[in-house]
Design goal:
Elements: E1 4-5, H1 16-22, H2 24-27, H3 38-58, E2 65-68, H4 71-85, E3 91-95, H5 100-111, E4 115-119, H6 129-134, E5 140-146, H7 158-167, E6 171-175, E7 194-198, E8 209-213, H8 228-231, H9 239-254, H10 256-277, E9 280-283, E10 295-300, H11 305-314, E11 317-318, H12 334-338, H13 343-346, E12 349-353, H14 363-377
Parallel strand pairs: 1-11, 3-4, 3-5, 5-6, 6-7
Antiparallel strand pairs: 2-8, 7-8, 9-10, 10-12
Helix pairs in contact: 1-9, 3-9, 4-5, 10-14, 11-14
The structure holds pyridoxal-5'-phosphate.
Pyridoxal-5'-phosphate is lined by residues 70-72, 99, 101, 146, 150, 175, 177-178, 198, 209, 323-324.
């Protein structure tokens, strides 16, 4: 790619070792894992081994991993599936800065009569633990809080959140789509009941993810049909995707600390140059603190972020204004609004998300193009 890609939070390229691991399952080892002959049976074993690999990365049991079509399905399933299995409780607690997978699932349930409590965040995107606890009552069905935010990189104190939930006997789901690979996601240390992952955010293929469901947690199925995924999620498995996800998870876990340090270093450098050169506000926690190492989110004064990102695209630099799902909107995202960014900066928000192929030597070009772009659109 000739350009400079700075949108790894939207998606990542598939790691070459992941491509190699996937290839045989597309044409040679192509059997349906539910078939009774060798070509199928050996693929069933491969699926179980893939589950084991992912389970080891999270420090959970193999049978607690269920493959889905990605993060959106896993989160839909966690929330709607748990709601359907426990119809006696009708209140759900989320944060103001959830991904649309959670937000719109809850909006859907709201129309069905559920009450949704949206816990406010402070200026850096941290939820108020006090408000979380005080929102709980006998009618609370569950809590769903994003572990690390996709727009501003805020890493919630998931251990403290989980302690509060379990003190009140409330089930906790977390969207760990952005967290996994960048920070430690070890469920022997942080006690969550359900957790969502998506492979394409950590150099795996698109269209595959999983939901971790702790043993003993009962949820209804969303997709009915065959008996795949322990009878809980029907449909012939995306075999090559599953193999790819497991390989990507293995690599991500093995190199997580190295990746964290590399991205933190690059973010620090890019951030310094941005602050030196532009009148902008830096959104979210400080770099090196409780922030995803690859995330930089800034707001420029009196501009429209989508115009700048379009101009940058014409100049081979790829950034985003918010999450990939609504990047064409000129309205500030719900996340930026929740931070109460001053009005004159709100619409000028740009997210840079760094990853493997980004180089320190790319920084001068990014800064120069940003200057040209701002001159052009202002
Ligand atoms: C935090 C977060 N949750 C969920 C998703 C949805 O995952 P998927 O693209 O696999 O459906 C994304 C992807 O943008 C995300 O960033």
């Amino acid at each position: 790619m000739k350009g400079i890609y700075l949108d790894y939070a939207a998606t990542t390229p598939v790691h070459p070792d992941v491509v190699l691991a996937m290839q045989p399952y597309l044409n040679i080892k192509f059997g349906n894992p539910s078939s009774m002959y060798q070509l199928g049976v050996s693929n069933r074993k491969t699926i179980n081994e893939s589950k084991k690999t992912i389970a080891q990365c999270l420090n959970v049991l193999q049978e607690e991993i269920y493959f889905t079509s990605g993060g959106t399905e896993a989160t839909n399933w966690a929330i709607k599936g748990y709601a359907e299995a426990h119809p006696e409780k009708k209140e759900i607690i989320i944060s103001q800065i959830e991904h649309h997978a959670t937000l719109n699932t809850c909006k859907y349930l709201e129309k069905k009569g559920y009450k949704i409590h949206s816990i406010p965040v402070d200026k850096k995107g941290f939820i108020s633990l006090k408000k979380l606890e005080s929102a709980m009552n006998d009618n609370t069905l569950m809590v769903s809080i994003i572990w690390a935010n996709n727009e501003i990189g805020t890493i919630q104190d998931m251990k403290a959140i989980s302690d509060i939930c379990h003190k009140h006997d409330v089930v906790l789901h977390t969207d760990a789509v952005q967290a996994f690979g960048q920070i430690s996601v070890d469920l022997s240390e942080v006690n969550v009941d359900m957790l969502t992952l998506s492979a394409h955010k950590f150099y795996g293929p698109k269209g595959i993810g999983c939901l971790y469901i702790k043993k003993g947690i009962v949820i209804e199925s969303l997709i009915h049909g065959g008996s795949q995924e322990q009878g809980k999620r029907a449909g012939t498995e995306y075999l090559s995707g599953i193999v790819g996800m497991a390989k990507a998870a293995e690599i991500a876990s093995q190199y997580q600390q190295v990746y964290y340090e590399k991205l933190n270093y690059l973010s620090t450098r890019l951030h310094q140059r941005l602050i030196q050169n532009f009148d902008c506000i830096f959104n979210g926690p400080e770099i090196g603190g409780r922030r995803l190492p690859g995330n930089i989110n800034i707001s420029f004064k009196d501009i429209i972020g989508t115009q700048l990102s379009y101009w940058l695209d014409q100049n081979d630099i790829y950034v985003s204004t918010g999450s990939a799902c609504d990047s064409t909107s000129i309205e500030p995202s719900h996340v930026i609004k929740a931070l109460k960014v001053p009005e004159e900066y709100m619409r000028g928000t740009i997210r840079f998300s760094l990853g493997n192929e980004f180089l320190e030597s790319d920084i001068p070009r990014v800064i120069a193009k940003l200057k040209d772009g701002l001159d052009f659109i202002q």
